[in-house]
Amino acid sequence: AQSVTQLGSHVSVSEGALVLLRCNYSSSVPPYLFWYVQYPNQGLQLLLKYTSAATLVKGINGFEAEFKKSETSFHLTKPSAHMSDAAEYFCAVRLVMAGTASKLTFGTGTRLQVTL
Amino acid sequence: KAGVTQTPRYLIKTRGQQVTLSCSPISGHRSVSWYQQTPGQGLQFLFEYFSETQRNKGNFPGRFSGRQFSNSRSEMNVSTLELGDSALYLCASSLNRATYEQYFGPGTRLTVT
Fold this sequence. Notes:
The complex is a heterodimer. Chain A is mainly β. Chain A is built from no helices and eleven strands. In chain A, the strands form two sheets. In chain A, strands 2, 4, 5, 9, 10 and 11 form a six-stranded mixed sheet that branches. The mean pLDDT of chain A is 90. By secondary structure, chain B is mainly beta. Chain B is globular, with a radius of gyration of 13 Å.
């Protein structure tokens, strides 16, 4: 079965510092991986996706993630945090297998706090 | 292009009642999925609809049901509401089943008292 583990339910960084949010996946077949962001009282916004093309994926708002098969990881990074980045971030995996249905499985989320 | 819309945004119901939530996908999108978000269980997949047919279902009791119309709009229904059904219900649409990214609506906040 597919699953996603996000290490750290809360991460706090200073404005201007590096953001690193960790995500590890478990999958028996090549997965499709996503990062979403959720601001208070809103739905989820897609930040970026990995669909087996380039292993380094660039997303919106300066975020990027690198797919590392050997480490089964898909960590999200941003070189310099901004106050507006404060939100909850979700990593998700979706399997695509011929002849079967697929669904999006989410991690438990990481709340990012950005301090002055 | 307008995003995914969900109505109503907020809802308060009493235990034992039933509720219907509505979702209008992005224009041209034919696949609609529903998720339940709670502080305790996180984001959980409810079901997926494509071409008016349920294609995938999560581990929820039969009280949770849904449907999709010919214009791709979708509704989900919860019967005999329980306190534990209080949650944010999110709808997501994608162009088709071969397009893997999903675009989410703002959600419907359901409170069961």
